[in-house]
Amino acid sequence: MFADRAKIYIRAGKGGDGHVSFRRELFVPNGGPDGGNGGKGGDVIFVVDEGLNTLTDFRHKRKYCAADGEQGGKKKCHGANGQDIIIKVPAGTVIKEAESGKVIADMSGDNVRETILKGGKGGLGNMNFATATMQAPKYAQPGQPAKELHVTLELKVIADVGLVGFPNVGKSTLLSRVTNAKPKIANYHFTTLNPNLGVVDLDDQKGFVIADIPGLIEGASEGIGLGHEFLRHIERTKVIIHMVDAASTEGRDPIQDIYTINQELSSYNEQIAKRPQVIAANKIDAIFEGDEDPIQKIRDEFEPQGIKVFAISAVSGKGLKELLYYVNELLEGLDPEPIVFEKEFFEDEIPMIDEPYTIEVDENGVYVVEGPKIDKMLGYTNLESEKGFAFFQRFLKDSGILEELEQAGIQEGDTVRMYGLEFDYYK
How many angstroms separate the CA atoms of 93 and 109, rounded? Predict the structure, then answer.
């Protein structure tokens, strides 16, 4: 089965922590701070791979994580940067934030490489905090937390013209005749289970790309059958060729078929239904003489609405040249730039992954703050120094812990305990 949609988890690398250390060498009894900086976390980068045409690979692997930056070392050694992760996708893939559905990036046109998540910055080592009055800082900066995101990938084929119609009206036959595409063709419904792309070459014209969108049915816009899987591929097309069985070989009314599918297009996306449309009335070689002319009935119905009708036979090729040249004329009057989905979701909307912590009030009314976030911060901060304690207070404010303590009802003079460290709370 053709895979054109996938949901995956992506995570950038966390920045490496800065290091606390001091120069210790023979004959240098009071060496200065030499803790190095942490390395930057790896980025999550999406790249277009022209050799791919489905999202099948994402069915087998759904989690993609860049490497964390390394911690800084002694002797001013900088931690290594985390390795980026490169995710390859086919051209035309739209990356969306899974919960909101907002577009993060459209991997089409000139956009063949995009960094979706940037790795966290590395923390500064204690060598960066030495001053004239504080020559031996015993604290360093933690690395920036990582960012994570659940995203959906949607492949929307890049074609100038979309070929739509009910199943078994001859779309695949038409595509195989006018392009280099070789779709499977058989006489049963839903023969085509994936969009087929082909290039139409015209003798004295530029030509265009056409996509055979698999047979739509009533209710497709609501996801009935494989509706949504197919309809998204029409979103980039600029002109629609609406193909019908003019001979009614399966007993359906071609005029009703056109209205039914146009309603599905409009229900899915009103903008699609407003695009230029041409009707290809197929199977004229199966119309018997003496019957009421079905082609004229279709023309009488739709040409007053500005929709041109062409009588064709996809099998014999009759009428195809006129149809293709008319479609090419329509395209020449439209913006030649491909339809690209605008970015709606930006990286600054993505929260950073944070270490957890808890705030509880014990039986003595002491506010107890604990968790990996606090334990880690206390591990690289010297609270005995004035600057170190100021650094710790800033951490409590910037991380939102002070705000949560206030929401928990803390008052001035109340006691806060963090892993054996107690202090009174004052604003």
Answer: 11
pLDDT tens per residue, range 50-64: 888 778 888 888 999
Single-letter code of the amino acid located at 34: D
Strand order in the sheet with 196-200: 196-200, 208-212, 161-164, 239-245, 277-282, 308-311
**What predicted TM-score, i.e. pTM, was given to this entire model?**
0.65
Q: What is the model's pLDDT at position 63?
A: 93
**Sign, CA torsion 403/406/411/415:** negative
Per-residue DSSP letters for 327-362? HHHHHHTS--SPP-PPP---GGGSPBP----EEEE-
CB 407 within 8 A of CB 392: no
pLDDT of res. 58 = 87
Residues at the annotated binding site for GTP? 165-172, 190-194, 212-215, 282-285, 313-315
* Whether 122 and 236 share a structural domain: no
How far, in Å, CA of 44 to CA of 66, rounded?
6
Q: Which residues are annotated as a binding site?
A: 165-172, 190-194, 212-215, 282-285, 313-315
Enumerate the β-bridge partners of residue 7.
152
DSSP states of 130-158 = --SS-SS----PPPPPPBEEEEEEEE---
Query: Considering its fold, how many domains does the chain have in total?
Result: 3
CATH of the domain at 386: 3.30.300.350
Closest by alpha carbon to 19, among 102, 115, 133, 123? 123
Q: Which residues are annotated as a binding site for Mg(2+)?
A: 172, 192
